[in-house]
Design goal:
254 residues; alpha/beta; three-stranded parallel beta sheet; 8 strands; globular
Amino acid sequence: MYHAVAPDPAPATLGLSVTPEAFAAQMDVLAERGFAPVTTAALAAAWRTNAELPARPVLVTFDDGYEGVHRYALPVLAKHSFVSTVFVTTGWLPGRHATGGELDAMLSWEQVRELAAAGTEIGGHSHSHPQLDQLDARRLRFEALRCRELVGEELGTAPDSFAYPYGYSSRRVRTTVREAGFTQALAVGNALARRRQGPYALERVTVRRSTTVEQFVRHVEGSSVARDFAADRVLTKGYALARRARGAVRGHWI
């Protein structure tokens, strides 16, 4: 799971960004070790139908829709003939649908179309990037439907895949995302994606500015993920309990 790819990102995105050089080195690792990137939709479809996947499948995903994905990541992906999935927050992209609130320079819709034309899967990431599990039913439905509607309007094809902002979801959120027309969705979890997680709760591993090449190698090979992200997982469980308590106070069912 990537966010911004930039040499000098905004302070708000710094920790979850990577430099263009680091991203290139990480994609070299995938190529050298025989990994075969697939899109989120392709992985989910293969698991649904028992279709064959490449020997070493991997998802390369980007959340939010930062401009550096087009400027810096796309040429590297093209060099290796790699595909990826970009989950866009539709209200953060400039233009007539913009709501404001973006944290850094965002993709234009023209760049989103160019990514799609290059083989990138474009997925949804909500309209305004809220904590979906804290919304009432009407606003939650709007966030999912509006996002899918706008991507479909701008690209000509509605997206099939979704990623939860902040990785936060609940049974209610997952049901709403499914009812909006998305056929699979990604969380965070900082664990490898497994079929048993189900199509609406697939987990990912975070790549940060502090991630070294050695750590990246261990993570893609499936070793030390639990150890390296132990603190993150404890915090995630604590946040989940706190959010459930807030949701119960607000009358939202989990």
